[in-house]
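Q: I'm building a small set of examples for a reading group on sequence design. Run inverse folding on the following structure and report the sequence directly after it, with nothing in between.
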């Protein structure tokens, strides 16, 4: 995806601290890399320009893939890059009780139901959606003798639309593009889609700024917000950083960890990726100075 194109829409009007709460929500499955720095920086600048709060949440709901060491490394790296977050860092691994309570309310309202299908049965679905097979609804009306493995949420036969602040209007028809989706997995872990919605609401997040790799998840999150009775935050999906092979930077694609000793250079590169032109020599200033320059010059252009 191209990072930026003309013309530049105006930044939203500055909001008061009460009306903007943003966040950076890394999954601590590895160290911070340039792609996650872009998400941290974009969410941080957008929050600080609005004189809002910026929270950090460790999305370690998928516990076997995450570690405290990786979380500590990420926090250390954020500090080395000059970021200051508001309040305590929240860990999803400590919040299973909250996720279970919301799941129970979804079960009580008939929105969530148990699913006994195996991966193989689902893979045989003839419908292909945005992330592989669309769940064919086999257990929608009961387990029919199967035993419950996972919990799914019913989707409605209508498009979910929202106006992304950067990517423009987005619409997704969950029934044909995703199907009823998992909120608690067969291994007993809560799914990202549920955890992120519960946390964004309970932390009072008003503005989500994150990578466009999550654009396709947003309709599912809005669907859950509507069914639980949560407000929908404003969304802004930043361009995704890709490597020379066209893959998103991630642990799986072996993205190199950020070098903390080069924090200002890294920040200037991330500013450049987001379409800003840091002044000459800024990469030799302190990371705080680079961030302050970012706050003073933050604007984003529609891609
Ligand atoms: N934890 C997700 C990730 O690291 C980000 C989730 C979000 O920002 O909603 O990709």
């Amino acid at each position: 995806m191209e990072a930026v194109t003309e013309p530049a829409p105006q930044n939203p009007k500055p909001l008061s601290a009460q009306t903007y709460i943003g966040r950076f929500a890394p999954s601590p499955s590895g160290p911070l890399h340039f792609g996650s720095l872009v998400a941290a920086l974009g969410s941080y600048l957008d929050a600080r320009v609005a004189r809002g709060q910026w929270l950090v949440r460790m999305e370690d709901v998928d516990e076997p893939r995450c570690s405290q060491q990786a979380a500590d490394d990420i926090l250390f790296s954020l500090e080395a890059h000059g970021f200051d977050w508001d309040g305590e860092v929240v860990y999803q691994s400590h919040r299973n009780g909250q996720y279970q309570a919301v799941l129970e309310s979804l079960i009580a309202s008939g929105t969530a139901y148990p699913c006994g299908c195996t991966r193989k049965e689902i893979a045989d679905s003839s419908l292909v959606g945005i992330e592989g097979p669309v769940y064919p609804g086999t257990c929608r009306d009961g387990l029919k003798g199967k035993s419950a493995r996972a919990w799914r949420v019913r989707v409605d036969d209508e498009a979910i639309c929202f106006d992304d602040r950067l990517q423009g209007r987005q619409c997704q028809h969950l029934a044909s593009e995703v199907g009823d989706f998992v909120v608690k997995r067969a291994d007993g872990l809560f799914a990202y889609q549920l955890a992120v919605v519960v946390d964004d609401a309970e932390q009072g997040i008003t503005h989500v700024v994150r990578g466009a790799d999550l654009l396709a998840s947003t309709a599912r999150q809005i669907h859950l917000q509507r069914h639980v009775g949560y407000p929908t935050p404003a969304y802004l999906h930043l361009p995704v950083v890709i490597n020379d092979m066209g893959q998103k930077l991630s642990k799986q694609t072996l993205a190199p960890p950020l070098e903390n000793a080069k924090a200002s250079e890294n920040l200037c590169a991330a500013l450049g990726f987001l379409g800003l032109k840091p002044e000459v020599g800024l990469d030799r200033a302190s990371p705080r100075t680079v961030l302050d320059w970012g706050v003073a010059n933050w604007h984003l252009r529609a891609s």
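Residues 1-17 have pLDDT under 50 and may be disordered.
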